[in-house]
Design a protein that fits this description.
Elements (H helix, E strand, L loop, with lengths): L1 E7 L2 E7 L1 H16 L4 E3 H7 L5 E7 L8 E6 L22
Antiparallel strand pairs: 1-2, 3-5, 4-5
Length: about 100
């Protein structure tokens, strides 16, 4: 990943380029297809641990990737919810 200011002095923008950014943009675009608000990768779900409640959406093909990517939806937390770690979900989109 590369980040920085790009452009001429009078028309400069800060931007980020790279595979991680491209994959995130493609997951964001899938929200419309799946009726979700936030989709994250398996890596992000594992890093979040039990801090966020998630539902496995499945293994999805992302343009530019040869292998399917495991994707999770971040669910709205409520005080009575119990958290299910991402590693305890199945690939069909349900919680174990």
């Amino acid at each position: 990943m590369v980040s920085g200011s790009v452009g001429a002095r009078v028309r400069r923008n800060y931007t980020v380029y790279g595979d991680t950014v491209n994959a995130a943009q493609r997951r964001e675009a899938l929200n419309n297809d799946y009726g979700t608000r936030i989709l994250v990768s398996d890596t992000t779900a594992q890093a979040a641990g039990t801090d966020l409640r998630m539902r496995a959406v499945g293994e999805l093909g992302l343009r530019g990737r040869s292998e399917p990517v495991r994707v999770f939806e971040v669910l709205n937390p409520t005080p009575s919810d119990t958290t299910v770690p991402a590693h305890q979900t199945n690939t069909r989109g349900g919680e174990v």
